[in-house]
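Hi L., both proteins are below.
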Amino acid sequence: MDLEQLGLHVRNLITLSETASPLISCYVNFEASRASYRDALDARIKEIRRALPPDQRHDFEQALGRVEAFLASEINPEANGVALFSRGGGSPFFLALQFRLPLPNLMLVDSVPHIYELVLLKDTYHRYIMLISTDTHARIVEVSVGNVTKELWTKQPELRKRVGREWTSEHYQNHRRGRTQKFIKEKIEILDRLVAKEEHTHLILAGNPRTVTRVRARLPKRLQDKLVDVVPVPNGALTEDVVTATLSAFAEHEQMESMETAGLLLDELRTAGLAVSGTEATLEALARRQVDVLVLSESYTAPAGWKCHSCKAVGIGAAPIGCPQCGEQTVGGISLMEEMVRLAERFGCTVEIVRDSDVLFDIGGVGCLLRYLLPEQRMVRLQEKPAWSVQA
């Protein structure tokens, strides 16, 4: 599965019509062993069965049956994480997504799919191009959400065995140096064209240390600017093993970029620029489609929230009996963090999830960079001193 396919699945999930039947969002971690998830999953199923209202139990068991059947017989041996979405009743739904990347053990039941873990995966391991290079061969591949999704170029020059017959050892050494330099130049030229054509913004070099050092030294500045890391791997390593070795380096680089976005958010807040912070202001900006980038702390804990299933109004606090906007008694509790992520994905906003950010903690754990200010917001900010406030 590549980034585009995952994005399509996320969009299909957030546009899935709600029904009265409960929908299971189940994330399973297979990193340790195929049975390691079972205790956590069984305990969660017991909790859900105790809490479900009687009129939803039949449809829940129907949805759970499909989850259990898939876990029992259809897991890819290479999968370290699986996301399952299942609903029974009159409008059944089932979707299974398998990843080489790990996911947490988690089961949630709601009227809508919970997609935060998929968005976190998409944000952390989105896409990069990788040059795997040795003295004798090279491959350029695209890695997307932990998988090799494109084989962009492979080259293994012909090796001559003419030493002792037609060439002296010195002739051979000179020839080999010349061929190596030419090979490196060819690799970089092809890499440059592919990066530009595929519009990649992240590059990783991998291979034996001597070769990747030579390649790095000759990269033009436009490729140096895209370079995430140089990862040494032994000659003959399988491509899958090389990808695994580079994933942590890419995740760390992505986290640095997320921290930079959090810093930009703070700068905009300090100068009363294109940003807001806090749960309430962020929800309002998302509803008005002003948001360019939603910035969430990974440790953000949203307050209680509610949503009207008739007019789609969203509020903070305990769910009222009737909707304050339309008066209908179709209000239920929701996860406001999930609602923010769903709105951001629906409206095509970038989502940045940041670990260990004191900046975000100080402003309530959530904020967003805006595309524009409304006229009334612009007038208020012109009258105010540059500052920011922490909202609920």
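That was the first. Here is the second:
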Amino acid sequence: MSQNLSTGPGPELEWTGERCVPWTTDVEVVYEHFHRYMFASNLVFGRRVLDLACGEGYGAAMLASQASHVVAVDIDPVSIAHATATYPGENLSFREMDMLDLSGLSNIQFDVVVCFEAIEHVADQDRLLDEIHHVLAPGGVVIISTPDREIYRHHQEAANPFHVRELDQNELHDLLAVRFAHVRLWG
């Protein structure tokens, strides 16, 4: 299945080193982000999906190639405008929204919620998980990724200024296990 992952109208989105854009020359960053969406795409066929912190929108477009409907949210209005223009689709919508306040989606229940490389950007991670839990349909699936602090720090010369609260595997597991009955970690 072909997907439009070109730069499209994308030049207004600058590669800052944090928000992944498909046209960056940092191949490692692109690989790390794309493989998460490729994995999730195998789990969303025919399902209603919420993509939190969707950024540039390429991942939501990947999910929409399999899902019945994808709502993708990001707090950055420039990213949402870019994503909307670059990845049009009848089953894909982009909304400017803070993932810490999903009340604008309270009338929708999602079968799958993905949140890739974003939980470390918020201090109130409990609130984020409460918001996810609120919009998740019974029997729904949450797929979250975050850098493992213990591994990530060994590969970084300095602390990432965009990260507010990094987690190790045990902390992530414990945070998820409070709300979700079945938690599995992969790395």
